[in-house]
Amino acid sequence: MKYRYLIIVLIAFLSGSCSDMLESYPNGDRTRDDAFKYIEMTQGLIGRSYDYLASDYSSKNYNSNEMAYLECATDNAVRRSTTDAVVQFAKGELNTNNQAFVRDFWKRDYDAIFLLNLFLKDRRGINTTILIKPELNTIVTRRLQGEAFGLRAWAERDLLKKFGGMEIGGTEFLGFPIVTEPLDAFSEINLARNTYDECVAQIIQDCDSAIKYLPLAHRDYMYNATYLADKKDFLGSVNWNRVDGMTMYAIKAMTYLTWASKRFNPANDMARWDSAAKYAAKVMDFKRAASPNGDGYNPASRTDFNDVYDRSIIWSSRVIENDITMEQVFFPANATGNGFSPYGDIGATSEFLNAFGDRNGYPISSSVLYDPTKPFDNRDPRFYAIINHNSRTYTPAGSSTVIYTFETWEPDVDGLNGGKDRAGVGNNVRTNIYVKKFCYGINWKTSNFSRRPRSRFAIRYAHMALAFAEAANQLVGPNGTKYGYTPKAVIGQLRSMTTYENKVGIPAADPYLNSVAALGTDAFYDLIKNERRIELSFEGERFHDMSRWTNDAEFDALYNKPVHGVKTVKNGTVYTYDLNWEVETRAYKSAYMPIPYDDILRMNKLVQNEGWDQWR
């Protein structure tokens, strides 16, 4: 986000839990009312909310770490630490002494909601004079008003996604306490959770309110050039990374999708599926439409996570300059040099590897190409864009020189000559499977190597394509047309699109896709789930998908079991791989996350989610 004339003061406060979150507006020598006397502070309410909603529970700085670390709460990944809260959560060992994993999610969302409510209260934000010129002032204040509603909808959806569930011993699904007023220390703070349905209605209402004020998208081509000429500092692409109308439609699509899913829609209300498909298709239409500049999104093109202006983006976080954090999280400890100090924090599982089919798109269970003795050969092209494995080499972008080779084999009978990147040695992953996604091109072997500008792709085209396919499949089946698309065609595009590392995807003919589509809705739904697992891997969706796709009995049967890595034995130049090497046992207490314990203690109206009896 660029600010030429508008100075944002980021107000650091609200460092406690729920009661602190709801205290009066502190800024040293100023009160909350002073926020509307100082234009930079008024805008700061919105700016600081963006900061909150891009933060996460870990101590890392790259703002997509939350998404990657949440994968360790699923069957896709394992964290190197065995005592971290996300690991304890997946193993059923999370206790009230280590609640930062959930409290920080809860707190940051309500911190943002507090500021946004303060801005929206009595329309004081939109009625503030920020710029002297009336026309420009109206442009800015209307945008800020829309952002306030839009960011509140995002925070509310995050709360519902993470904390929506069933009360212990209850029969009704609950969401979060809806707060639309800037409560303070003088307010009665004893909040009850609203029903799940009420929370959905609140999110949709805030999205609709935001749409009234926001442009459809922050793009220069949406304005007449003459009109835009003296307004480029306030309109159009200058506001990239801010929420816009398309962001709101996307939030609506994702909210309806979860509400329509098996767990939260036991009556299978088809209207929910229809709303999810409708809004996802609306965003897809916009992204695919050719702009006057000819830069509409082509679904066949790759997503480049190093391009903070990638055309697949619907909404992304603020840009962090000079970043290497994801490379540090995913690369092994021995990949060092010139300030690059990785720590192998997150490793993929064998279960995740097995989600990838062969290079022609067939699952490994029915593939004539897959050889279990050579599990890394002839795989789905996307496999190589997401996974680094034993003997895989790394070549920086723009170079032909290999600067690293992954070595994960076990020591010999004398305990010597083990691979430098094997599990159990220093800061290496525990599964012997490294993650490549997000990590392209850096060369740490050169002096003053170039770090990347990065942003979190909070919503991108693939989110909408997968949401549409899932919802429309329930309505019209794989081959039926809904809102201009068929689920089969949309999934086919994702499977055949150019990979993240700019390689050709699954052949477009895709006979396996055709055969599954011919089997009908249920079989195609299983394929969609697997496609979602691959495409959105390490983007923070997997655990919530595991929950929403199942009832309690199915959740336990599918996910309360061990996860595995790859044990590698080297004999000369020949490798033997064991993909059934148990690394960690998963024993989820619940398909829901717990409500923070200190707030449960503080507010007797606030009830806990099922499975967390010791947290109430």
Characterization of this structure:
This protein is mainly alpha-helical and 616 residues long. Helix content is 37%, strand content 8%. The chain has 20 helices and 14 strands. The protein has helices at residues 18-21, 39-53, 65-70, 85-90, 100-120, 134-163, 196-213, 225-228, 245-260, 270-288, 325-330, 350-353, 381-386, 461-476, 487-496, 511-519, 521-535, 542-548, 552-559, 597-602, and strands at residues 77-79, 165-166, 173-174, 313-315, 320-323, 346-348, 387-388, 393-394, 404-405, 434-435, 452-454, 459-460, 562-571, 574-585. The protein has a two-stranded antiparallel sheet with strand order 1-6. α6 runs antiparallel to α7, α7 (196-213) packs antiparallel against α9 (245-260) and α10 crosses α14. Mean pLDDT is 90; it is low at 1-29 and 56-64.
